[in-house]
Design brief:
- The chain is mostly helical.
- The chain is built from 6 helices and 2 strands, in the order αααβαβαα.
- Helix 2 crosses helix 3.
- It is globular.
- The mean pLDDT is about 90.
Length: about 130
C-alpha cells in the first residue's frame, strides 16, 4: 500500500484482516491468464480500492471508461477494442474497472456479460477488422 501511495493517488485504507484476504483473492484471480472477477456489494465498501491495489501488485494498468452525456454503445465498443488491443495484442496486464454508475445504456450490460462469460464479445469487431488482427 505504501508503494502504491508513492506512485499513485493516495488511498487511505485500513487493511484489516478481511481486506487483506480480499486483496489476496482479487490478486490471485486477476493474475491468472484470462482472469476476471465480478465484485458485488454495497457501494463505498472498498471494492474499487482493493481492485486497484491488486492491479498494482500484479503490475497491471488499471483503466476504466470515461462517461459523458454523449457516451454511447459505439464509444463503449471503441474503448473495449482499445482494451482488447492492449491486453491481447500487446500482452499488457490490464485491469478494467466498470461500475454500475457507468451503465448509461442497458446494452452495455450485454457487452460486459459477454466479456465476463467467455471473454469474447460477438459484434465487437467488423469482419474486416477481425481479419486484420489475425
Amino acid at each position: 500500500l505504501k508503494e502504491y501511495n508513492d506512485t499513485n493517488a493516495v488511498m487511505d485504507l485500513v487493511l484489516f484482516e478481511d481486506a487483506l484476504k480480499h486483496v489476496c483473492k482479487i490478486t490471485r484471480i486477476v493474475a491468472n491468464p484470462g482472469g476476471h472477477a465480478l465484485l458485488v456489494g454495497v457501494g463505498g465498501m472498498g471494492k474499487q480500492s482493493l481492485s486497484r491495489l491488486a492491479s498494482f501488485i500484479c503490475q497491471y494498468t488499471t483503466t476504466s471508461i470515461m462517461i459523458s452525456s454523449s457516451y454511447g454503445v459505439n464509444d463503449l465498443k471503441n474503448d473495449l477494442q482499445n482494451f482488447y488491443g492492449k491486453a491481447g495484442l500487446k500482452d499488457e496486464g490490464l485491469l478494467f474497472l466498470f461500475t454500475e454508475g457507468q451503465i448509461t445504456n442497458e446494452k452495455f450490460l450485454v457487452y460486459i456479460n459477454d466479456l465476463l462469460a467467455s471473454g469474447e464479445i460477438a459484434d465487437l469487431y467488423q469482419k474486416e477488422e477481425q481479419e486484420q488482427i489475425q
